[in-house]
Amino acid sequence: MSAPDIKSGSDASAFGKLAYLVIDDFENFRLSMRHMLRSCGADNIELVTRAQAAVQYCTYNHVDVVLCDYNLGEGKNGQHILEELRHKKLLQRSSLFLMVTSETSREMVMGAREYQPDAYLTKPINLAMLEKRLGSLISQRNALLPINREIDRENYPEAISLCIQAIPRMPRHKTWLMKTLGELYFRLGDLTHAIKVYDEVLSQRELSWARFGRSKVLLANHRYDEAVAGLRALIASHPDYMEAYDLLAEGLERQNKPSQAQKVLERATNYSPNALLRQKHLAELAESNQDLVTAAEAWRRTVDLGTHSIHDSPNNYLALSQTLGDLSDGNTEIEGIALAKEAIKTLNSMEKRFPDSDAVVLRSEIIQCRIYAGQEQAHKAEVILERIRPLVQKMPSPDLETSLDYAKTLFRLGYGEEAKSLLGDLSNQFGDDPVTLKKIESLLDEPVSFRMKVRARGLNRDGIEAFESGNLKKAKSIFGKALEMIPDHPALNLNQVQVLMKEYEGDTSNKELLKSCQQYLNQLTKLPEQHGQYRRYRALQRKLKALNL
Questions:
Q1: Most confident of 28-37, 425-434, 517-526
Q2: Is there a single domain that holds both residue 478 and residue 417?
Q3: 9, 51, 225, 448: which could form a disulfide with 76 (CB 3.0–4.6 Å)?
Q4: What is the percent of the chain with per-residue pLDDT over 70, rounded to a whole number?
Q5: Which of 114, 141, 168 corresponds to the end of one domain?
Q6: The domain spanning residue 58 has which CATH number?
Q7: CATH of the domain at 421
Q8: Is the model more confident about 108 or about 69?
Q9: For residue 124, is the peptide bond before it cis, meaning its omega torsion is within 30 degrees of 0?
Q10: How many other CB atoms are there within 10 angstroms of residue 221's CB atom?
């Protein structure tokens, strides 16, 4: 590798070879920055005032150095620009992004750090400060340019080779080289060499990035306990290392500990609240944990953060409105009414923000229909249903999420058979997709309001506990109460059948027990073969037949 080592200070030729973009909404500051850059030897300098112009310029022009003010008035701020440039891959690895700000709040700094600017410059900025800070970064950039070029080309083997060659010759960059080397081995899937790099670094010094990298490799190797322990220790010593929270949550989910994963993300979002994707992950996790209050708050934050973000999506609005709708379902008190109104308002905002999508409007109306039904406004719900029913039926290729949402609404309005028919068609269409089948199965099993689902699940757990302790009378009573709420639930019906069969073993003269078993099994005659309870259903059918002989 022919790149030179860093030299002290800076020279005009180093500044002069690069292209600069200055983003600030104050003309005086833009002109001042241009004057100072020219004094350092820079020549190719573009000035813009707003985010849209900045992103557009980077789309069509190569930029080596971006100097971006954090506060740009109304609209996107510097964090949003950095987020978008990273997401669209409009900045090369060799490009430098410097966040310029007079604001030093933890919330701002933590939010901006999520997208890893190369440096912060605090206003007011003078020539000496700019020349020293930027000159040092440019010198490092030039020294490491050959490696970064190969990474941009995704030529990772060559980049690894250049890193290995540079380590003995560029001791001042050893930390950067070892960190990059570990990341490159990981990208190539060479986990053995990756962990050797991190272990070598950690044997000499405890560095947070090396501990994080090692945990990432352990997680990829399915060594979940070691990875989780390492990440917990890392967060304890470096509570501002935000990537560690995300990876720890992932590790806990892999260990099937979703509640613990949720707690980790709650702590992370309290510490750094402006990361949209983390808020979204928290919302999804809380939903799966049936913690709809936390889910709603995280979805609210996700929608709010999306206002100026590249990650804005109608799906975030839909998810928030669905969660609020579930919380309001069956609650016609002041709190429930307020939640339902917020859900409708969210959907209206979404339709204004994404006005050109018929699919988005259809999803919105499906959810509104269900919300009105949950608020006992049956007439409003039926009017919407009559309007959307032909639209759903005319969909050329049914969108999965729209179809599932529509089935949920049909169940809520009492059109169970129509909903089951739709879900049956989806089961045939997506029979090879276990994730989709699980969603269909969940709707078939529990086509009721969220509150009733939670109550029925609690009764199911209590019934199983009573059965396992040998208290058949109590188990039968509990499963009976749950089945009053969800009479078609496969697992509940089969649990009740097992209780009755066990009771029959103690009193074979009581043939009424067998008749009851048959009645519960008859509830499941339309159970799809793809359903997770189908094999159990068939086995109990055969067992009942044998007992009747």
A1: 28-37
A2: no
A3: 51
A4: 95
A5: 141
A6: 3.40.50.2300
A7: 1.25.40.10
A8: 69
A9: yes
A10: 14
pLDDT in tens, 152-169: 999 999 999 999 999 999
By residue range, what is the domain housing residue 507? 452-548
Tell me if 312 sits within 8 A of 306, measured CB to CB.
Answer: yes
Q: Are residues 435 and 321 in the same domain?
A: yes
Which helix (H) or strand (E) covers residue 48, if one does? strand 44-48
pLDDT digits (tens, 9 = 90+) for 481-526: 989 888 888 889 999 999 999 999 988 989 899 999 999 999 998 8
16 and 124 share one domain: yes
Query: How many structural domains compose the chain?
Result: 4
462: in domain: yes
Last residue of a domain, one of 396, 415, 447: 447
Token representation of residue 302: 């996700």
Residue 240 Cα distances to 57, 114, 179, 269, angstroms: 33, 10, 19, 11
Q: Residue 300: inside a domain, yes or no?
A: no
* 349-380 tens-digit pLDDT: 999 999 888 889 999 999 999 999 999 999 99
pTM beyond 0.70: the answer is yes
Q: How many CB atoms lie within 10 A of CB 47?
A: 18
Contacts of 447 (CB under 8 A, 6+ apart): 407, 408, 411, 412, 416, 419, 486, 488
By CB atoms closer than 10 A (0-12, 13-18, 19+), residue 67 is buried
Report residue 164 as tokens: 């290995």
Report pLDDT for 112: 60
Question: Both tokens of residue 263?
Answer: 């707690």
